[in-house]
From TrEMBL:
InterPro entries: Glyco_trans_4-like_N (IPR028098), Glycosyltransferase_grp1 (IPR050194). It holds the Pfam family Glyco_transf_4. Residues 16-217 form the Glycosyltransferase subfamily 4-like N-terminal domain. SUPFAM superfamilies: UDP-Glycosyltransferase/glycogen phosphorylase. Keywords: Transferase. This is Glycosyltransferase involved in cell wall biosynthesis. It comes from Phyllobacterium bourgognense. The keyword Calcium does not apply.
Length: 419
């Protein structure tokens, strides 16, 4: 039986972000495929307080999920600072569980040293890393967006990075890049959910032959009734996800405000909260929600198990991100429910939605273009039906796990020879 350690930078029970959700879904899929799998989620004081005497904390009820408390972490170098505390505990965990495969989903909190620790402790262990965003490339929270202008960044370099963070010396960006690439050299194979993200890492210097593209999968499709849709008198749109500047929340609300000023009839349901956001951003969206009520309904946070039912109550989902999103789960959730999507025509979003086929794509950070797309969907029932019929259902998570396991099997000969 293959032993797999799945490691992510948090746990979906504490922070239900797309990476954490996908990593945990894949962990369960590995178990269904016959693997012995253990889930390791790293966390810090934002979600859990430290417990004296150990780096590990329990979570879940099955004994196959644990948390690594990582309160000392260098976000610039993405390094584990507590080398004398956490690292020995990680080594002990590796020696106790003795995974055949370590599947890493992020460097945050775990530390860029994690693959090297695995390689040093278990030389024959195969290490796979799924690339979910651009954190190793970009110090700006992995967004690849310029700090001052919010302009999309098409390629990182020490000069460009220094111009975004003038308080950080240029040579530190040179050292950061060398540091991360050196530690990532211990990874046997990388996986990207989109061609766009793969190309970004190739441009950064990761060898093309090391990166495979495997789209993220979703749990089995949940059948839901869409009776409300047939009875309504005006089109309903929905936003699902956290509210933050990079997800395009203000762009969406400005677009709604424009349509309201034109006396255009529609309804927008905004599902999601704004955790850990700046006071200025929260003030902006509070103002915009007030100015667009009651046409725009602020529905608040939701549970993941409720999203299929929530999507079933809208005619179209909107994903207006202004950064290079890789593979948003919301788009997959919507497409799995035959729900059209309006999204930005950049990054992995443009790979998932083809304009006029299964949704509409618009220029990012453009409220007028977004408003026009909303109006187009609302005024044309035939177009809506075409987009419904064009929905592209995502792979199941079990299909995705099978593709990962097939990739992992191809890595075995290299390790046998190396040993």
């Amino acid at each position: 039986m293959t032993r797999v350690l799945v490691a992510a930078h948090n746990h979906p029970a504490l922070h239900p972000g797309g990476t954490e959700i996908f990593a945990h879904d894949l962990f369960r899929a590995y178990q269904r495929a016959g693997c012995e799998a253990l889930f390791l989620g790293a966390t810090n004081h934002i979600h859990r307080e430290a417990r004296p005497g150990t780096s590990f904390q329990s979570i879940g009820t099955n004994g196959d999920e644990i948390l690594l408390w990582s309160g000392h972490f260098d976000r610039f170098f993405m390094s584990q600072v507590d080398l004398y505390g956490i690292v020995p505990d990680i080594v002990e965990l590796l020696r106790d569980f003795r995974p055949d495969v370590v599947h890493l989903h992020h460097l945050l909190l775990l530390g860029a040293e994690f693959p090297h620790i695995v390689r040093r402790t278990l030389p024959e262990c195969r290490i796979v890393m799924t690339l979910h965003d651009y954190y190793p490339i970009c110090h700006h929270d992995g967004l690849m967006v310029r700090t001052a202008s919010k302009e999309l960044c098409h390629g990182a370099s020490p000069d460009r990075c220094h111009s975004c963070f003038k308080e950080i010396a240029l040579d530190k960006f040179v050292l950061r890049e060398r540091h991360l690439k050196s530690l990532l050299s211990a990874v046997d194979a990388f996986v990207s959910p989109s061609e766009f993200l793969k190309q970004r890492y190739i441009d950064w210097g990761i060898s093309e032959h090391l990166i495979s593209v495997i789209p993220n999968g979703q749990p089995e499709r949940v059948e839901v009734k869409r009776g409300e849709v047939a009875q309504r008198t005006k089109p309903v749109f929905g936003y699902f996800g956290n509210l933050n500047p990079w997800k395009g929340a203000t762009v969406l609300l400005e677009a709604a405000k424009q349509l309201i000023s034109e006396d255009f009839e529609f309804e927008l349901r905004v599902h999601g909260a704004a955790p850990f956001q700046s006071e200025s951003f929260v003030a902006d969206i509070d103002r915009l929600f007030a100015e667009t009520s009651p046409t725009v309904q602020r529905r608040g946070a939701y549970r993941r198990e409720d999203i299929a039912g929530l999507i079933a109550t809208v005619d179209c989902a909107i994903m207006p991100s202004i950064w290079w999103e890789n593979a948003p789960l919301v788009i997959q959730e919507a497409q799995g429910q035959d729900c059209p999507v309006i999204t930005s025509n950049i990054g992995g979003m443009a790979e998932m939605i083809e304009d006029g086929v299964n949704g509409l794509t618009v220029s990012p950070n453009d409220p007028m273009a977004l408003a026009a797309a909303i109006r187009r969907i609302a005024e044309d029932p035939d177009l809506r039906q075409t987009l419904v019929l064009g929905a592209r259902h995502p792979d199941t998570i079990d299909m995705t796990a099978a593709r990962y396991l097939d990739l992992i099997e191809t890595l075995r000969p290299a390790h046998v020879e190396a040993a």
